[in-house]
Amino acid sequence: MKVKKPLFGGRRGPGEPQLRAEEYRLLRDLVSERLGIWFGPEARSSLERRLRERLDVRGLTSFADYYQLLKYSPAAGEEWDEAGDLLTTHETYFFREDYQLRAFQQELLPMLAAKPRRRIQVWSAGCSTGEEAYTIAMLILESGLFEPTDGWELRVYGSDLSKKCIAAARRGVYGPASFRATTDEARARWFVPHGREAPGPAGDPAPPRFYGVAPAARSLCHFTQMNLLDEERTQLVGRCDVIFCRNVVLYFDAAARRRVIETFYERLVPGGVLLLGHAESLLNVSTAFELLHLKEDLVYRKPLIASAVK
Amino acid sequence: MTERTAARVRAGLEDPEPEVRRRAAQEIPALPAPESCELLLSALGDDDWRVRKEAAAVATRVEPRTAVVFAVARALAEHENVGLRNAAVEALILIGPDAVPGAIDALGRLDADGRKLAVEVLAGAPTLAGIKTLVRATKDADVNVVIAALEGLGKADLAGEEARELAIATLTALLGGEQETTAPAAPAAAAAPHAAQVRGATLDALRALDAPVPWASLEPLFGDALLRRNAIAAAAGSGAPRALLMLAQAVADPSPTLAREATTSLGRSLEEVWGDEELAEIAARTLRASPAAHARLRALARQARDPARGAALLALGLVRDPDDVSLIAEALQSDDVAERAEAALHLFGDQAVEPLLAAGRSAAPSLRGATISMLPDLASSEAEPLAAVRDALGDTSPEVVAPALKSLAIVGVGADLASVARHARSADAKVASAAHGALLAIAGRHVGPAREMLQGIDPRGDDALWAVIVVGALARAGAEAPSDAAFLASALTHREAAVRRATIDALAVVGGEEAAQAVTVSLADEEAVVALAAIRALGHLGHAEELASLAATTRDPMRLGAVLRALREADPERAFAAARPLVRSRDPSIAAAAIDVVGDVALDGHVEALLSATDHPDHEVVKLALGELAKLGDERALAALASAVEHAAESVRRCAAELLGQFGADGESVLRARLDRERSADVRRSIMQALAVRSTGAG
Question: Is 60 exceeded by the pLDDT of residue A306?
């Protein structure tokens, strides 16, 4: 829905700088080039609101100065970490989009269990605060198909643009919002209460609000801060059997989407599978993947023959 | 070599393995004509969708283009291989305006199925010539062709204003509207049995073009089962009282699709009539009287990614049921609908306060913060909301404390200064910044208590930060005291950079030679934020001489940018003289800083200086210069942009296209001419968006 006229003109405190149209154009293009995230014409106030605090931290008085900082300053690298953190969406929770997780557990994991090489690596690309990566680890362990005593080497990589998110993922302690789709059974099995709560009115201990991920799942997961457009960094992930990248590329512009999908193709082993969010597809992005029809989901597979003809 | 490549590609395209054929298709552009055309057609007709899709994508790179276009257009006549036909359409659309003559040519020779495909090509690669052909196609003997043509006219804005106007005139005439037009006055006889379909497509096309449809034409269609959805969508933005009434009624439609469409349209109409309480009340009464409509709005307002969410929130604001406040408040956290949620809460006025306070008590920090930030707007003088804002200062989450401080900046009083001051040294940047703003605002309004608060404060102690901010606020309010200068001079040597920076800001307001001397010392501060503040302060204090000398010696881009901008404030002519030679600096960061200043100082020679930067080797510098030139809005700017839209770098062409969209008819001609030649799909998209922005007047 297009806003014809501003209803209230946005919320800006006294003396706070305004993001002018030309500054918006420059910053928008810079963010797109560096992070792949695309801000459309309606998103000016959103960009302004998200980045405003950085101007003050840096002692700047205009968004033009901030553009200069991001583009040309020696301090740009560390500032991009901060900006990336503010510009990305961190909404996630355990066992999100259960139909896809069922497809992963019931159909893809048995396929992986049939591999001759006893090594499984899954990449949760854009893992935010880590819930998805831990969920994947839990599903792998729950399947019972990959007993470490049988020589299986299991690894789940979680990566995100935001350093703060990665720090939270490594901490592995979560509040109620992360458990909105977690059954009591799963909670009991895969989480341990964290911290003490104040006693209730009757003096009895209140139920815990925070839980930590159980060690078995934690030990499978490794986290790292990474820009998916940074080819040098993505090389470090190694070859993956499955890549989850859900609700990430929908925020990217077309060029960034193509680059990221190429990276995934390159990182997957032949026959490896890419799972996108339900609103995302590779239509008009890449023809490199085959469609693999599962009972509950449609996923993308790198052709088995790919490496032979490359 | 080429023969070997051709043989390999040919063999690859015949391989039984689809992946091998797909990779062979990628190599087709490397082959010469006519083999490239032949193999392209073969790949476009492959059994596997991935090979066809790859072939369509590489078609844009196969030469000679005219031969490719006419060869692929011939495939539109294909009857047996549906995959080939569809891939041919996709390839031609990707080729873009160059494919239009081929599609127009094919239109005259093909059967109905083929004509429909040719029309789809014209719709997918919108040009003025293509839109004129689509107008003729609305008289086709086949109804499917007519409908495809109407859908294509709905994209006419991407071909510029003339195309959009032509399309609107044609569509309005088809609808039996009142506007004068040279377009056909009625649909073709062949389409008559399918009149409802044709009208529906016509309404949708008008909606897509954001063209108003007279309410009188729409109202009868609300009762037509076949056209109700189209009519509801086309009524979006109408401010007619009956439109508001009927859209509000349609929100309760049993069909979820129609109800969503009605909500979206009602939202657009509410935005159009915003501020007209009488009109809004028409919709409000209807919604309040309908529990089904209310329930539907609540459901839509809860859907995080539903495009109708913002409209549902606005409509709930009209209903003003206190039970909805927490639901609306939730949306304050979502960037895409926050503005509408705020608008909805404003419609409640102080009725929102109680439920907002209740919602804030148990919510997550971000929502608590959002509710706190709304309270001063809704009830700035009432005790209870203000008490909640003050309580929020004690919250453990920065997401709550920062909005509370911002709220107090608006409504706080002298008694709040102490509690605000406690946050000035917060480790959270957002909180510290909000506290700084609040101190400045409150102390400026309540100078007596602010002055009193400074009693006995050590300028080198832990309270120095808030104290120097308050001194600065008092100076701004014209309430300086003789002791302030000594206080600031002492604070300037504080161990914390934040204090030194705030002191410099205060000295800049206090003014005078002593202040300037103190500030000058801080130019050498090792902390960038302090040095930058000193540079800005010198500008504010009018010390051009010092700044001009700094401009000649500074190389750090951030500092140089700050120096040039400060010099601009102190002495625009000297700033211009200093910046002008730097616009062509080899260091792009320096050139960028110089362009910013030169563009802003409209002195003789600034246009020439900016023009000289348009061939800078760094594309970002070129874009900056173009942005500054575009602000001139004159012929020189147009010429520069016309030249830049031919630039070798795609990013520059895209930037020039976007800027040309603001240049009226002349800009449109340049864009249309370039669109016909542009090979990059991304740049073409930018050009079409610029044309659309221009033709609809949006953006």
Answer: no
**Percent of chain B having pLDDT more than 90?**
71
Nearest to A309 among B20, B274, B410 (CB): B20
Residue B190 pLDDT greater than 80, yes or no:
no
| Domain range annotation of chain B | 412-541
The CATH classification number of A98-309 equals 3.40.50.150
Q: How many CB atoms lie within 10 A of CB A100?
A: 21
Q: Which two tokens stand for residue B639?
A: 């010429």
Q: Is it the case that residue B547 has pLDDT exceeding 50?
A: yes
Q: Is the Cβ pair B335, A5 closer than 8 Å? A: no
Residue appearing with tokens 């808030």: B466
Contact assignment for B501 to A8 by CB distance below 8 Å: no
Residue with tokens 């221009």: B694
The topology (CATH level 3) of A21-87 is Chemotaxis Receptor Methyltransferase Cher; domain 1 (1.10.155)
Tokens of B593: 């800083």
Q: How far is B165 from chain A (nearest CA, A)?
A: 20
pLDDT band of residue A195 (cuts 50, 70, 90) is: confident
Q: Which of B434, B530, B698 sits opposite A2 (nearest CB)?
A: B698
B567-626 residues touching A, CB cutoff 8 A: 588-589, 592-593, 596, 620, 623-624
Predicted confidence at residue B358, as pLDDT, reads 82
Query: Is A262 in CB contact (< 8 Å) with chain B?
Result: no
Q: Provide the number of CB pairs (under 8 Å) joining chain A to chain B.
A: 136
Q: Is A290 helix (H, G, I), strand (E, B) or coil?
A: strand
pTM score:
0.81
Nearest-neighbour CA in chain B from A146: distance (Å): 31
CB B657 within 8 A of CB B645: yes
The verdict on B699 touching A (C-beta cutoff 8 Å) is yes
Are the C-beta atoms of B268 and B261 separated by less than 8 Å?
no
A72 touching chain B per CB within 8 A: yes
A41-99 pLDDT tens trace? 878 888 998 898 898 888 788 898 899 899 988 889 889 999 998 898 787 899 998 89
- Confirm if B252 and B260 have CB atoms less than 8 A apart: no
Give the gap in angstroms from C-alpha A90 to the nearest C-alpha of chain B. 12
Q: What is the amino acid identity at position B606?
A: H
Strand stretches in chain A, DSSP E: 119-125, 153-160, 173-174, 191-193, 211-213, 221-225, 240-245, 268-276, 290-293, 298-301
Q: Is A241's pLDDT higher than 90? A: yes
Neighbours of B581 (CB within 10 A): 11
Taking domain B412-541, whether its CATH number is 1.10.3720.10 is answered by no
Per-residue pLDDT tens over the stretch B287-305: 999 999 999 999 999 987 7
Q: CA dist A177 to A13, B363, B680, Å?
A: 30, 11, 45
Per-residue confidence (pLDDT) for residue B249, from 0 to 100: 97
What mean pLDDT is reported for chain A?
A: 87
